[in-house]
Amino acid sequence: MKKRLNVVLALFLALILLTSCSSGAKDLASSGDASADGKTYKFKLAHITPPSHMWHKAAEKFKEELSKRSDGRIELEIYPSSQLGSEADMMQQIESGSVDFGFITAAYTSSRSPSFAAWFAPYAFKDLEAAHAARESEPAKKILATLDEQGITGLDYLFAGQRVMLFKDKHVKKPEDMKGLKLRVTPSPPMQDFYKSTGASTEGLPLPEVYSAVQTGVIDGMDMDLDAAITNKYYEVAKYGAVTNHMVWPAVAMVNKSTFEGMSEEDQKIVRESLKAAADYAVETRSGQEEEFRKELADNGMEIYDIDPELFKPYIEEFDKKYGPTDPLIQEFIDSVRK
Ligand code: BEZ
């Protein structure tokens, strides 16, 4: 009888232990507060940009909103500037659950889940707000859901500026002027293919190597966003800045799938709403900064100008023709944004 009682007690204790561990290592002891299930969390979020970049500011907003909406139960530690490694490392950490959240470039994400390449359809959005709105479309949501099979939940997209072109000493006024130039373009096939179609060649240099590569003439220019152009002082080494805004530059907000699914529905809602607040904040802030950034670059000696998007029409068509047929989701996305 006593032995049976011990077995029942052991089973009971194991059940309690299993239930309390259901949200993974980040699920700390119950705080006993008035929340839906009383659980407290200390999550980690990693990304590659420095604290001055909009994605980091969005991460801080996400942290603030999580804390506010959960009465302090959900805490977030942010690791910027690739402190936890490259994006490949970070995504692996998110998959394994050693890091909970990430803001990972759609460029890198597309190397793991190809339909994210759809976001690099050139000149697909009239402005940043239009891209921000497109993140709520069915194709954009289906693209996020492709991360599921990797043990990751894709939650949302965050936008910093759009992509522009900086040239060391050639005043490029039309796509044909890029022929023969060696340009740094993020190592993402859709981004690089767009440049290659103009006759430029591309180098997939990581960000920290770009400044000296332009300075020493290893490359003739780069694809960049205005925030990073200022943060990294590229105006010191590149004379011309064409504010083409030819592609958007989303970060994919993602979380370890079992961590997310282990949260109560109410807490999942808090996460989604906090992220939406961060995404709205980023786009509202960044949209209003275009003029200020152009002026800052010009004040630092860069010649800032526009190129008529119509001149890129043949290259846009070439992109759509090449990438649409590679994946039904990319085709669906392109059809929805070009209509
Ligand atoms: C880039 O690799 O071009 C980049 C990465 C993160 C933020 C901005 C630019």
Automatic annotation (TrEMBL):
Keywords: Signal. GO terms for molecular function: carbohydrate binding. Residues 1-25 form the signal peptide. SUPFAM superfamilies: Periplasmic binding protein-like II (SSF53850). It comes from the Bacteria. InterPro entries: DctP_fam, TRAP_DctP, TRAP_DctP_sf. Pfam families: DctP. GO terms for cellular component: outer membrane-bounded periplasmic space. Gene3D superfamilies: Bacterial extracellular solute-binding protein, family 7. GO terms for biological process: transmembrane transport. NCBIfam families: dctP, TRAP_S1. This is C4-dicarboxylate ABC transporter substrate-binding protein.
